[in-house]
Structures are given as structure tokens and as C-alpha cells.
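Lab notebook, bench 4. We co-purified these components, and the gel suggests they stay together. Before we commit to crystallization screens, I want a quick structural picture of the whole thing.
Request: model the full complex, all chains together.
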Amino acid sequence: MRTKTGIKIFITVLALILGLLLTGCAREAAPEQEPAQEPTPVQEPAVEEPTPVTIRVGLWGSEEELNASLENAQGADSMFPGLTVEIQPFPSSEDFWSNLPAQIAAKTAPDIVKLTNEGAFEFIEKGLFVPIDNYVADAGLDLGTFAQSAKDIWTVDENLYGIPKSVMPAMFIINQDMWDEAGLGEPPTTWDEVREAARTLTQGDTKGIIINLHEFHLTNWILTFGGGWGNGRTINSDANVQALETIIEFYDEGLAITPKQAGFGWDGEVFANLRGAMSTGGWWYKGYLATAAPDINATFIPMPMGTTRGSTSHSDAYVVLKDAVDRVSAVKAAYWLTRDEALESIMERVGINPAKPALASKFYEVNPEFAAIEAMVPYSKDFGYPADTRNFNLLLVQAMEEKILGGTDITVREILDSIQEEFN
Amino acid sequence: MKNAANRQEGILKRISDSDAFIGLLFVTPFVALWIVWFFIPLIESFLRSFQDANFITLETASFIGLDNYFTLFEDRDFFRAITNSLLLVAVAVPVQTLMALLFAMALNREIPGKGFFRTLYFLPYVTSPIAVATVFMILFTQGNFFSVLMSYLGFPDTTWTANLTLALPFVMILYVWQQVGFFMVIYLAGLQGIPRELYEACQVDGANALQKFLNVTVPVLRPVTSFVVTVGIIYAFQIFDQVAAISRYGQLGSPAGRTSTLISYFIQVGIREMEIGLGSASIVVFFLLILGVTMIQRRLLKERDA
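Here is the predicted assembly.
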């Protein structure tokens, strides 16, 4: 009898605690709607206070970029009364994508995210990001000052998915001090010239070139041979085969190193630690080297040619997540973060080419180190990954690691044919 | 009326004074949290494993029966993850158990600086796995200390985390180095609970050190060993931090999937690719695998006791 009563009390207490816990875990209650008011019979119309709204912005980048973004986020209510922009920094894109599912489930995901076009296509297709044309119109925003090429990158099926922040070709980076010490003269313009230089620059622990077996770098190589993934349609093209075979040749000759072989995470770290003299990369090298290796004298030049000029076009944009509570305010926040003053700050501190032609002309004055890259703008293209981008990247990178790190006999043709089969 | 009130008061007093009630009250917070943070997610995971569910469009998740399980068992990467996890358990658990016992026995003697050495061996356990992995990656880079040291033992002087054959052993070394201290402490407590008289009796019978170890230490420590092995297996199946650290900025399980484990497979599929249905199916398989291995292990130890 005593035990039965004890159990009943136990169950009651447990139910109470569970109820309290579940209540505490529940999402925030939606803000109460103000009751409709009777129109007051006054001569002057009542001035409505704007409803305060906070838009959370998820982004990652170098320390310099994060600091600039935090400063740029302030004062949004001067342009959009009631709007507060709150930056949610992430240590890296991996952290963002790892945390995002839990945040979506918990309804705590950012409202907008600063994202690169690399890999964005997959999530546009899956519906994670929403087209913003209607919300831009509702907010009365004028996107005419943004470069059409940048808007085109973020347009899918005639719908705009992001307010572009920057557009910049990928580039080739050289350790100028090592280059000069080796007496190599003019910077390379073709991969053959890179190979010649790498033979001289490979000394001791340092390899001539860093070739990160990451889809970004592999894609840049194939574009310089006139290739492309074609959103999954041209994975095993002859040009792609030729490009990847050229990469293999660099490794076979002992001229190249991957970040993994050097004990690092990405090519920038290898470069900063002087384990590689040259690398493909992007504008982020400027901000990264400024903090990680300020003494390194890096030169930024166009991507070397294989059979043609080519490189990826990197465009950052602010995209609106489907669970954003107030999408109109979200696009306003994105617009605030891409105002001229904000883009100029980023341009000066981080070296990103703003996605506004009026500012872009100033970009190369403020960042003379990128002057040579301007010539690449007409030749740079979108990444062209298949819609199932992550699976494609996994297959491609794994196969290249097997080949280069594992020394398997499988040919590049066989690798690309097998991947093409998965995406037919 | 007064009698009813008195009876009620008596019942409440008996309940509040009873040991069972007090005990239940103490375990209630833990049970409540366990239900919310483990049991409910477990049930939800199990149900999700039968759905075509993506985090982006959870609201349109649909029932697809066993399709996720069929997909898993046709996935080469899944089998690689299982194989790697089983290899990790098969190698890391016996090695760490043996090392923990030997260190504990060494530290159970009266030696100078015993406290210092105990702290030293326990320190890796309380150090961040990411920090440890980062340092080890540098030490096991071609030409660096451990890579050169291991080359004297017949291994190539190469960057272990970039070598398809050595990447998984690197994870094992990293993991065992960090875990040994924890299990050493457990064994130490067990050793200190062995009555001296047993050793003295052996001494009288003329037993040498090895005979004392085999006939006293090992049998008396069997419950401790059972615990160490069981917990070791469960922990070893859950290796992830080390894999994530060496896969930083690249594909999880790199190079070329050689360090992929069941947990990293789930993170890749269920979280990064947001295919939570397929990811949940992998977790259910993972759960059953750990359960199966643990039950086999406990049965074997029980038979030995009998």
C-alpha cells in the first residue's frame, strides 16, 4: 500500500517536472499581436511606432572581416526604423553547416546568412533559401546599384536568392620573397611555367606548389583547361580529365604538397608556414595572412592558363533562410550590410571586391595588390557543381585522395567516369 | 471527520518518511532529464529512420519503410565506417586496458613522486581532444619527432594523417594516449581494494610475482576489468573528436574515408547533408551494434567467472 502510494506520488512529481522542462524547452512565444484599435477621431493622424525587430545574421570569416561586420551591423535603425541587426559569428563554414540542422529544429537559426556561391546551388534547390524578389519590392529597395554579373550568379530560374556583397575571381598566390630569392623573374602565366618554377622552388621542406585536394581548387584547375562540371552534365569531359592529370603530374614529380601532408588544415596555413611557395586561392588570403603571417610578401596574380583563361567567380551574398520570421526585415538587414559605407570598410580591411560597379573601380586603388586580378573578371565563372553538391564533392575529393595519397592505379578517366555515372 | 483528517496525516507522514519515497525523489531529476534528453530522442530517431526526412523540409517527411536501411547496406562508405569502428574497438580497447593496468600496478607501489606521475598520466584525459590532435598531427608530420621515431620501428617517415594506411593507426594512438589515464585511475582504485593478506598467503606458498599477478590480481580485479572493457568499448565506438580534428577543412573521415567512423558517417549524412532519415537509420544500426558487442563481451566475462 505504502509502495503503491509512493509510486503514485513519484509519477505525479515526475509528470510535473517533465511538464516544467518541456515548457522551458519550448520555442519562444510569438510576440502578441496588438489588438485592432478603433480609429481615434483626431485631426492629426497618429504616428505609428515601428515594430522593433531583430534580424540575426550568421557569418564566418577572418578576424578582420568579423570585426568589420560587427561594426557595420550597428545603426541599422537609422535607415530602417526599428531594425536591429545582430551578428552571429561562426568559427568556420564547417561549424555553421554542422550547427544549422539543430538550429533549424530549435527555431534558433539565423534569419540571413552570408554565404559564398560555392555550394549554394544545392541549398537553393532544396528550398533552404527563399527567393527575395517580392520581399525586396515590399521593402522598397533599389538593387540597381549592384553589378548585374553578381546578381546573375545569385539568380536561379529567374529568381534572385541573395543580395550580393562581393564578386571576385579566384587567383594564384606566390610567395614573392621565395620567388625573388630563386631568381625567377616574371610571374608565371601558364601551368607549364608554374611547373618550371616549382622545380626551382622545391627545396628542403618546401614544395613549389600547394595543391589542396578540395573541390574549390580542383574546379579552378579544370576551368583553366576549358572544362567545367556543367552542373553534373560534363563531369568526365576530356578537358576535366586533362586538368586533373596535370595535377597528378605535379605530385608525381614531387613538386606539390597537400595541406594534409604538411600537417595543416588548408592551403593558407601551408603557405603561411612556408611549406609551399605557390597556391591557388582567393581574396581571403589577404585578411588571413595579415594576422597569421604578416611578414610574408604575397603576390596575387591571375590563375595560370592551361589551354585557356579561366577561374571560378566567388560571390558572397546575404541569403534569407526559409524559417526567417520577418523576411522583409531580413532583406532590409541584408541591404543595410551591403550599403556603400559597409562595403567600403570591408574592401579596405579585407580586400573583397564589392558587388557594386561604382565601388569596384575604387577597389583596385585601395587594394593595389589585386590589380592584376581585374583582368580575370570577364573569364571567371560559377562553380557549376551538380545539385547534389556535397555528395559530388565527397566522391571527387575521396577519389583524388585515393589516387594521390594512396597511389592507386585507377586513372583520372576512370575516376571521372564513375562519378559521372552517379550523376547521370 | 477528525478521524479522516488524522488518517490522511498519518498516511502522508508514512509516505514522506519512507525510504522508497526519499529514494524516488532523489532519482527523479535524473530520470526526468534522461527521459527528455535520451529516451524521447531515441524513440524519435527510431521513428525517423523509417522516413524520407530532410532537415530543410522536415514538415514533408514521409514514411518509406525500410528503404533507409537498404540504402545503408548498399553504401560502401557505411561499411567502411563500421569496419573502421570495429577495428578501433578491437585494437584500442585491449591496448588501453592492458596499459592502464600496468601503469596502475606501477603506481600502486611506493615510489618517489607517485603523486606527480599519477597526475601526469591522468593529464591527457582532461586535455581537449582537439588540442591534443592538433599537436599530434604536427608531431606525426614527415620529418618531425614521432614520425622519425616511428621510422626506427619500421614505419615510413611520412605524415601519418595523409597516409591511407597509417591514418587510422594514428587515430588509435591518439585515442589510447588520451584514455589510458582515466582507466588507470579506475584500476588503481581496484588495486588498492585487494586485501594484502591474499598476497601474503601467496608469498607463504612460494608464489613468484607472475603467479601472484595471475592468481590474485587478475581474478580479484575481474569486476573492474569488466567495467573498464565495457566502458572502453562504448567510448571507442564513439570516437569523433580526433577524426574531426584531422579532417579539419576537409571531408570527414579523410584521407579518402580511412578514418571514417559510425559517428562521423552520421554527422556527414545526417547533419552536413541534412538527410536525417538516413542518418537516424545509421544511428539505430550503431546502437544495436554497441548493444550486441557489449552483451557478447559481458556474457564471455560471466562465463569465465562461472
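Chain B touches chain A through 48 residues (CB under 8 Å). Worth comparing against the SEC data before the next meeting. Chain B has a mean pLDDT of 89.
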